[in-house]
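Question: Send over one sample?
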Amino acid sequence: MKVAVLDINGKDTGRKADLSSDVFAIEPNNHAVYLDVKQYLANQRQGTHKAKERAEISGSTRKIKKQKGTGTARAGSIKSGVFKGGGRMFGPRPRNYSFKLNKNLKRLARKSALSIKAGEKSIVVLEDFNFESPKTKNFTAVLKALDLENKKSLFVLGEANKNVYLSSRNLKGSEVITSSEISTYKILNANQVILLEGALEGIQTNLSK
């Protein structure tokens, strides 16, 4: 699959990038995509929720009424969850929501996500660029040239670039990552995926295994 390489002004450079059909043109596996996205979202959860149960709250331990003869249900402690101020019955406890997926499934999910975006014509290949200093204005100019001002965009760099990353950090709709940080969720969450030339080889090598 041949795709035109654009510059930061949105102009065609006259060069073509070759996107591997093994990565960008496979039959998407929706279940693999679902599992990988589910794992990503589960890993974002802190799992620090906690409610006190009857053994953890302070209160009297005396029996609050006699066992029989009251005409109501027996009750042994004011800390019971059926009374106001009592403990929470079966309340949430801290837990880890993460779960394991094997590497081959995650690789399939990412190839599926890239293939979906390629099928939607939502992948742009951009020549490598850099800024002299971190300025949001410079990155905004790139978005404007690519007609991405009002769209969610994901820029994938070949290697870490501090100036480009810092220039994009204040923009809510844009995210800059390296090819090693790419994930199924981030690919699908973006309206447009912008792959820099330097990232192509790394992506295709890692996902073609």
Remarks:
- DSSP finds seven helices and six strands in the chain.
- The radius of gyration is 27 Å.
- The helical segments are 21-24, 30-44, 103-119, 136-145, 162-168, 184-189, 197-207.
- The first strand starts at residue 2 and ends at 6.
